[in-house]
Amino acid sequence: MPGEANQSSKQLLDAHPQASIRPEDCQRASIDRSGYLPESFADGVVFARSTADVVLAMELASKFGVKIVPRGAGTGLAAGATARRGEVVLDVSKMDRIISIDPVEQIAVVQPGVINAAVNAAAGELGLFYAPDPASTAICSIGGNIATNAGGMWCAKYGVTRESVLALTVVLPDGQLLRTGRRTIKGVAGYDMNALFIGSEGTLGIVVEAVLRLRPKPIRTATAAAYFPDESRAAQAAAAIISARLQPSVLELMDGPSLWAIDGALGTGHRELGGALLLAQTDGFGAELEMQALVEAIMPLASRIDRAEDEAQAAQLMEARRQAIPSMEQLGTVSICDIGVPRSKLAEALAGLAEIGERRGVRIFTIAHAADGNLHPVIVVDPGQSITSGAPKAALADMFHLAQRLGGTLTGEHGIGLLKQDWLEEEIGSRSLRLQHSIRQVFDPQGILNPGKGI
C-alpha cells in the first residue's frame, strides 16, 4: 500500500513540478498487465510532458540517489514496469506526439508515449505502415515496444522492433542526452548503440524520441483461417508452409482452449470448427497467388479452410487473434509466458505445454507466432490467486526448461522483467551475465534505473 516516501524520494518529488504523490496515482503506476502485484507501491510518480521533464527527473534522481522505474502505457507482461516503496515512477505516457512523418524517406519521428496503432493510422494516410504489430497495438506505446524489442503478428515477414527503429534520443541515468543511430537505412560508424538500447527494458536510459522506419503499405492482402483436429496438425501445417518456401506476413496458431476463450468473449464459433486454428495472411502484388500455394501446402492436414472474401472478414479474423489474451483475462488472473523454440520443434513444444498443464494442475491456453516459433502459453488462475508461487510458478519454470531443452529461449519478445530473472543465468550463462552486468554498470554506476529488472 502507499506509504510515507523515503527522504531521497521526497526530495525529488518536492523539486519536480510534474510530480504526484496521490495514492491512486502511485498505485496505478506501480502495476502492469503481467498479473504481478507488488507488496507495496511507489513513493510517487513524475508525469513527464517533455524531454526537459525527463532530464530534470534523472538529474534529481542522480543527485539524491533515487531509484527510478520508467513507465509507458503499462501494458508490459513481465512485471518490468512494476514499482514498490522506495522507488519513483517516471511516466512518459503524456509524451505522445507524432512529431513528423516524411513520406519520401519513409520515416516517422515520435515521442515514446505514442500508441502503436496511432503511428500506423497516421502512416496509413500516406500509404505507409509501421511493421512491429503487437496484439496490444491499440493500447501499447512505442517506448514500451522499444524497451522490450516487441514483435507481433507481422514480424513473420517484417521483423521485430529492432528492424524498424533507425535512431533514438535517450536520457541517461545522470540526465545527459545521448543520440544513437541515424536516419539512413545503412550506417556502421562505431558500435550499434541503437541496438543496445532496444530491448534493454529501461535499464540503460529512457527513450524520449525515436526515428521509426516505415514501409509501403501492401497493395493487396489475402487472409485465410485453417482449422485442424488438434494442435499437432496445426503445427505440422505451419512447418509445411515454411518448407514450401512461402513467407506469409501473418501466421498465427491458436489451440483449442484459446478458441474456447475467444468464442466465449466474442460470441464466435471457432471451436466448433476445429481443435486448433492457423490464421494466415499474405500481402503484396502476388498475395492471392501466394495464398493459393499456402492453401495447397496445408490442405492434406486441415479439416476446413475458410478464405476471407473481403476486408471486413479479414479484419474479423485478425481481431479474434488480437482479442485472445483479453478473452483469457475475463476468466481470471493470467500469467503470460513467452517462450521461443526452433520452428521445427513447434509441435513438440505444444505437446510439452499440454503435459505441463496436466501434471501441474493448471489451465494453459496457448497462442503462437507460428512462423518464428514464439509461443505464448497463458496460465489462468482464479482471481486473487498468486501467479508467482505454487503450481503456477512451477508450471512457468517447467515451460522455460521445456524451451531450453528444445534449443529455444525463455523470452521471445516480452522481456525478462521481474518474473523471469530466476532462470536467466541458466540460458545465457554466468560469463555472459557478468559481462552484461558490467555494461549496465557503465551506463548506470549508481544502480538507480529500473533496479531488479531485466539483466
List keywords for this structure.
455 residues, alpha+beta, Uridine Diphospho-n-acetylenolpyruvylglucosamine Reductase, domain 2, Uridine Diphospho-n-acetylenolpyruvylglucosamine Reductase, domain 3, Alpha-Beta Plaits, 4 domains, seven-stranded antiparallel sheet, five-stranded antiparallel sheet, 17 helices, 18 strands
What would you note in describing this structure?
The protein is of the alpha+beta class. The protein has four domains: 7-91, 2-Layer Sandwich (Uridine Diphospho-n-acetylenolpyruvylglucosamine Reductase, domain 2); 98-216, Uridine Diphospho-n-acetylenolpyruvylglucosamine Reductase, domain 3, CATH 3.30.465.10; 221-325, Alpha-Beta Plaits (2-Layer Sandwich); 332-426, Alpha-Beta Plaits (2-Layer Sandwich), CATH 3.30.70.2740. It has 17 helices and 18 strands. It has helices at 7-15, 23-28, 51-64, 116-124, 142-148, 155-158, 193-197, 231-243, 256-266, 270-273, 287-298, 311-322, 324-329, 346-360, 390-405, 424-428, 430-443; strands at residues 19-20, 44-47, 67-71, 87-91, 98-102, 107-110, 128-129, 165-171, 177-181, 206-213, 215-216, 221-228, 250-255, 276-283, 304-307, 333-336, 363-369, 374-381. The chain is globular. The model has no long low-confidence stretch (mean pLDDT 96).
